[in-house]
TrEMBL record:
<protein>
    <submittedName>
        <fullName>DNA-binding transcriptional ArsR family regulator</fullName>
    </submittedName>
</protein>
<dbReference type="GO" id="GO:0003677">
    <property type="term" value="F:DNA binding"/>
</dbReference>
<dbReference type="InterPro" id="IPR011991">
    <property type="entry name" value="ArsR-like_HTH"/>
</dbReference>
<keyword id="KW-0238">DNA-binding</keyword>
<dbReference type="InterPro" id="IPR036388">
    <property type="entry name" value="WH-like_DNA-bd_sf"/>
</dbReference>
<dbReference type="InterPro" id="IPR036390">
    <property type="entry name" value="WH_DNA-bd_sf"/>
</dbReference>
<feature type="region of interest" description="Disordered">
    <location>
        <begin position="1"/>
        <end position="21"/>
    </location>
</feature>
<dbReference type="Pfam" id="PF13412">
    <property type="entry name" value="HTH_24"/>
</dbReference>
């Protein structure tokens, strides 16, 4: 069993250094979680939070748009992203679950609208 070191005890989990070279979730999921927080973050800010380049975030957003997961809404000089939470997860092992299911567990603390609200 691992215990956390005293130096990271007061540090929020998102700011703690990684203990290895892999995570349970993909960068696509990390970007989606950042966008689901609805804070109007720029893609540069999302890149900083995820720990990847801004160009990688742009490619991920393009993938998510092409898959129908995200739609872009222009607001002034910024883009806002709407997430279609009714979309099923893509892997056959998870296809019985929706993005709503994923985001309700891992997403922002505020409740997300369900697929019926979309």
């Amino acid at each position: 069993m691992r215990t956390s070191s005293s130096s990271s005890a007061g540090t929020p989990p998102a700011e703690r250094p990684a203990e290895g070279s892999w995570t349970f979730l993909t960068n696509h999921t990390h970007v989606l979680l950042c966008l689901a927080q609805g804070e109007g973050s720029t893609l540069r800010e999302v890149a900083g939070r995820v720990g990847i380049t801004e160009r990688a975030v742009q490619r991920i957003v393009a993938d998510l748009e092409e898959a129908g997961v995200l739609s872009k809404v222009r607001e002034g000089r910024r883009n806002r992203y709407r997430i279609d939470t009714s979309r099923p997860l893509r892997h056959p092992l998870e296809a019985h679950r929706s993005l709503h299911d994923l985001l309700s567990v891992l997403g922002p603390p505020d409740p997300l609208p369900g697929p019926e609200d979309a």
